[in-house]
Known about the structure:
By secondary structure, this protein is of the alpha/beta class. 39% of the residues lie in helices and 22% in strands.
Amino acid sequence: MADIRTLDLNLLKAFDALMDERSVTRAAARLALTQPAVSGMLTRLREAFNDPLFVRSARGVVPTARAESLAPAVRQVLVEVAAMLQPLSFDPATATLTLSVAATDYALRAVVLPWLGALQAQAPLVRVAVRPIDEGRIAAQLERGEVDLALTTPQAALPDSHARHLFEERYVVVARRDHPALADGPMTLDTFCALDHALVSYGGAPFEGITDRSLAEQGRQRRVAVSVGSFLMLPELIRRTDLIAVAPARLITPESGLLTWAPPLAIPGFTKLAVWHERNHRDAGQRWAREVLFEACRDQARTEPLTGS
């Protein structure tokens, strides 16, 4: 039976790794230990809790009902111990923190770029790894500590996570400055529908998006001539062609040399959130880095791009 006087904290770390990895081999690699060492720790865990805890399967091990019931409490103990061991103060000027952030290419431009500028100015030794966001895996990545921060939307709500509202984004119509069809007059709905469009589509119907659904409600349609998988190439595509596009406003910077108009119809915008797991919630360094992010989003001084008629 478990005895708090003899229970090694490292056993709980091994238990947590086994719960996540469902494999003694992968748990050993995660803990930087040998497989026999983790097998020995599992034996001690079984003795401490008087239960097999993990039983063999075709692909590794699976937890018993007892292990499943213990998992939340073990995870909380590890989170609280990690927080307890953190230094009371955090010095950005000397910190060597490494952060992993998951973001779309849009969030990379609209959120990560201004944030990195602020981080570099205040904490030159902090490193940031940015990876593409995978909404199907992000909850597990946050829980395992593979990702420290995710930039996402409320539609991708993550259970057991903390979230902070960053901003509300709106859409604008964008075209090159010397577009021959847009030299005179406002951007009317007729003009909007008559011109060829570019569209960014991460998945689903490559030539249809939220703009097309808004047009359909008015009995109108447009022609999408080009569909691309990245927001980051959209400004260059618009600069080099007579295509127009509907794009998030924060994507179009003053230096892009592009003109923007308010859409001639209502197109719903979206909300951008920062999301992180409880395991990082109290970490002094990550808490500081998140505050820098929030401040960068609040105070980003963004001059409006050139506006059309």
